[in-house]
Design brief:
Elements (H helix, E strand, L loop, with lengths): L2 H11 L2 H24 L6 H30 L1
Helix pairs in contact: 2-3
Length: 76
């Protein structure tokens, strides 16, 4: 199992409130990195790409959970 797959499994096991908290913290971190990039202070430019990917993955996990809840409500 790769690191990425392991991280996604952990994200899927998180409580929805924890997922939202993680999403917000990564968005704030991305904002700070963008500000640093504008001022020329970023050492590792790959951090931006990695953070964007993690944000997208967290949003996907959140949307999957929402879709499952909706499907369960429709069955009932």
């Amino acid at each position: 199992m790769s690191k990425r797959t392991h991280w996604l499994d952990e994200a899927r096991a998180m409580d929805p409130s924890v997922t939202e908290t993680e999403l917000e913290s990564r968005r704030k971190k991305l904002f700070m990195l963008r500000v640093q990039q504008m001022t020329g202070q970023v050492d590792n430019h790959r951090q931006l790409r990695t953070l964007k990917r993690e944000i997208a993955q967290l949003m996907t996990v959140r949307n999957e959970a929402h879709a499952e809840e909706t499907a369960e409500e429709e069955k009932a």
